[in-house]
Amino acid sequence: MDNIFQSIELLSKEKGIDPQIVFDAVKDAMLVAARKHFRTTEDLVADLEDRSQGVRIFAVYKVVEEITDPIREMTLEQARRSDPAAEVGQEIRIFRSTESLGRISAQTAKQVILQKVREAERETVYAEYANRVGEMVNCAVKRMEGLDLLCDLGKTEARLPRKEQSKLENFSVGDRIRCVIKSVEKAGKNAGVLVSRAAPELVERLFEQEVPEIYDGTVLIRGCAREAGERTKIAVSSRDREVDSVGACVGMKGMRVQSIIRELRGEKIDIIEYSEDPAVFATHALSPAKITRVSILSLPEKHMEVIVDDSQLSLAIGKKGQNVRLASKLLVWRIDIKSEEEKRQEVESAMEALTVPGAPVSVLIGHGIAESIAQRLIESGIPTVEKLGAMTPEELEAAGMSSEMVESIQVAVNSYYGQFEVAPAEVETAAAADAEAAPQAVQVPEETVDAAEAPPAEAESPEPVEEASKEAEAGSANAASSEQAPGAEAPPSAEPRYLESESDTIKSAE
After folding, report:
1. pTM of the model
2. Same domain for 206 and 303?
3. Residue after which a domain boundary falls, among 352, 374, 407
4. Fewest CB within 10 angstroms: 25, 40, 337, 460, which?
5. How far apart are the first and last CA of the chain?
6. Partners of 138 in the beta sheet?
7. Going by DSSP bridges, is the β-strand pair 231-238/268-273 parallel, antiparallel, or unpaired?
């Protein structure tokens, strides 16, 4: 029987659990096996206190004067057969031999023991690792289960799922890796310890190891957003004005951050200076893009709008939206990015939506409509003169207007539109006035000017008037014949003559 106790002690040491838990598991297993073998509902108890006798099973009965439950009660006479000193109300334990337990009962007891030990082991693991979530641990890849890796933590095994692995990494059995404890569960599908290589806490722990200023608290990590295998943004601030937080994390010639990048297999890391002002913090978080301005749309809902130049829009958004997505996670704000052109179009559309087309109804007050009627029209949903003019009297009456109001409205609308119309007589008068005001251009032939300047023909040549008339007719006939000749230039007589005088006739005769 000592072998049983030795086995229990070895098992408890191997699993790292209390030996008493294993003893209780053995007792429960024996009770289950006994009930299944004896096929009884008696109250059974197991005794494992005597090393020489091993596990003993007893049935418990209560001594009563009159039996109401034969399975759990017995009379005083029956009790004194086993214990002469028995009294009413006392419990009597009757031994049940376990030598008759067969292979099936032993297999049942084994399953119960394993289950109890497994539950106790989970409790122990949970108690040890529950307070270590987010802590970085060193472990070795023990075996693979599909795409998941099982890592040895020493006292227990941890699962590294495929979704918690970086896209840039591939591990083999026996590789030493550094992970952070993601979660610890007692039961369920993810029972046990779950570790991660894709969590942002891993980057924070690596910076704490590589940067002494972070370890001693001079530089604080204010936030970290990560897409494993691609890019990480980490915000830091300094408690000492003389210490540059970003420079401390980068290190001389980038040695510190390069060490972390090698650990993460080349993942890009952006180190950002933290600011209490969300607008300034957003400007830093969206680097390397240059931000034009930041507007806080809703402070309670943490919603902001970022405006950038058209050339910086794609850089601010990043590849597949990665840059703005990481910045949003880092700030824990909702960020809307727009270009200058998009914002301008949005403002113009908003202004157009706010502007009501047409003249307001209030302009009709100066055309005979009462102010109360204008106010009533606005309340009825008729804000403009254009909409009012398109309505029929029946529609106005349906809107709550009386016949007198409708008549007054019609007169005011006609008066309003009448001011833009001009009577035909006024048009003719205005045209005549314009014609008189404009200077008149008179075209005078050259020969008329010469004739006016020349001395009278009578003084040079006292020829009879009759002969002059004949010569003038002859000259007119020659001019007509020259117009009919092809290719000939038009004579001066072809131009309109505005002056008909005696001197002109004399010049023509010459």
Report:
1. 0.59
2. no
3. 352
4. 460
5. 167
6. 178
7. parallel
User: Which residue bears the tokens 């010459």?
Assistant: 510
Residue 229 has pLDDT above 70, yes or no: yes
Model pLDDT, residue 116: 79
Same domain flag for 8 and 81? yes
Task: Give residue-wise pLDDT tens across range 51-89.
Answer: 555 677 788 888 887 888 877 888 887 888 877 877 888
Q: Are residues 451 and 462 in the same domain?
A: yes
> By C-alpha distance, which of 180, 131, 126 is closest to 151?
180
Which CATH number do you get for residue 45? 3.30.1480.10
Residue 437 lies in a domain: no
Residue 396 pLDDT level (bands cut at 50, 70, 90): confident
Residue pair 110/35 in contact (Cβ under 8 Å)? The answer is: no
Nearest to 26 by CA among 125, 121, 124, 114: 114
Listed in sequence order, the residues at least 6 apart from 144 whose beta carbon sits closer than 8 Å to its beta carbon are 150, 173
* pLDDT score recorded for residue 37: 75
**80 & 23 share domain:** yes
Task: Write the CB contacts of 8 (distance below 8 Å, at least 6 apart in sequence).
Answer: 19, 22, 23, 26
In the block, which residue shows the tokens 């209030």?
362
The CATH number covering residue 139 comes to 3.30.300.20
How many other C-beta atoms are found inside a 10 Å radius of the C-beta of residue 105? 20
Q: For the chain, what percent of residues have pLDDT higher than 90?
A: 33
Region 42-52 average pLDDT:
70
Question: Do the domain assignments include residue 441?
Answer: no
Nearest Cα to 101, choosing from 30, 198, 180, 43?
30
CA distance linking residue 101 with residue 36, whole number of Å: 10
Query: pLDDT by residue (tens digit) across 447-477?
Result: 443 444 444 444 344 444 344 444 434 444 3
Q: Quick one: tokens of 311?
A: 């050339």
Same domain, 307 and 267: no
Same structural domain for residues 116 and 8?
yes
Number of other residues whose CB lies within 10 A of the CB of residue 21: 18
Q: How many helices (H) and strands (E) does the chain have?
A: 21, 15
The SS3 call for residue 453 is: helix
Fill in the amino acid letter for 270. Answer: D
Token pair for residue 220? 């604080």
Give helix 502-509 / helix 446-453 axis angle, nearest 10°. Answer: 100
Per-residue confidence (pLDDT) for residue 4, from 0 to 100? 66
| pLDDT number for residue 497 | 41
Within a domain: 24:
yes
Question: What residue numbers bound the domain in which 143 lies?
Answer: 125-271
Token code pair at residue 430: 């205005």
Q: What is the pLDDT of residues 241-278, one digit of tens each?
A: 899 999 999 999 999 999 999 999 999 999 999 999 99
If asked whether residues 221 and 102 sit together in one domain, one would say no
- Structurally, the chain folds into a number of domains equal to 5
